[in-house]
Amino acid sequence: MNALSLIDVTVGLSGRTVLDSVDVTFAPGRLTVVIGPNGAGKSTLLQVAAGLRRPNAGRVTIGGVPLADFSRRHLAKRRAYLPQSPQIDWAISVERVVALGLTAHLPAFGALLSSWQSEIEIALARYDLIALRDRPATRLSGGELARVMLARATVGSPDILIADEPTTGLDPRHALDAARRLRQLADEGKTIVVALHDLDLALGIADDVVALKDGRVMGAGPAGEMFTETTLSALYDVDTRVVRSDDGDTIRFL
Ligand SMILES: Nc1ncnc2c1ncn2[C@@H]1O[C@H](COP(=O)(O)OP(=O)(O)OP(=O)(O)O)[C@@H](O)[C@H]1O
Q1: How large is the ipTM?
Q2: Pocket residue to mutate for ligand 1, from 13, 82, 193, 210, most atoms within 8 A of Cβ
Q3: Which residue CA neighbors atom 18 of ligand 1 most closely?
Q4: Which residues form the ABC transporter domain (predicted)?
Q5: What are the tens digits of pLDDT across the range 118-136?
């Protein structure tokens, strides 16, 4: 079972309550989009869900088992986390960065398994990185680096993928491509959690939506029930229209 749950989670930073009694479950086989205005607590929620930040109160479980009961290696195999502004600090090739996503799967000592090379090839191809494979990751555009980090996060086939604004900086084709990949992973049964500001992209891929405002869950549920003019207007404090068309719905802020 790969349901990821935050149970009564509260986080305080520098004396401020950033997440306040958050209860939310991310279900396997579903893509959940976390939305909300700047500073709502989305990144903090994702960091807590990934086990990278300890809550001041409450707990996080995978399949009912507290994160604290997983070894670091086991947790690293089960879930991948993609930060909002990924950085590579030294010149390492694109291919090596993608290979880092397999670290938890590799033996700690001895020869590397050549069978993993095919997984790396697949990940490079999926994110349109074949031509960039030998480039230093420190010399990429923001969008190219975002694709590299997506490939790294998914190369080890984690059960749970937590991604913070993974399409930021991607051009329309690559953003759509990445969104479709995330959708596909959910369809394969993975638990996918994505913070997104691009609501039109979210509309196209989300099963469920968690709306955060001022550190609290303002609403959570199936995308069809959450992407309404009333909910979005209240969430962002701006008049919102959901425009229906044969090509799909779009959201306009007025
Ligand atoms: N280290 C920190 N110390 C104090 N406050 C912090 C710290 N990190 C974040 N915050 C505050 O916590 C709140 C939530 O931040 P968070 O990054 O989770 O929001 P967000 O919803 O992801 O925002 P954005 O959409 O701008 O990325 C913000 O008010 C932020 O200023």
Answers
A1: 0.97
A2: 13
A3: 41
A4: 4-239
A5: 999 999 999 999 999 999 9
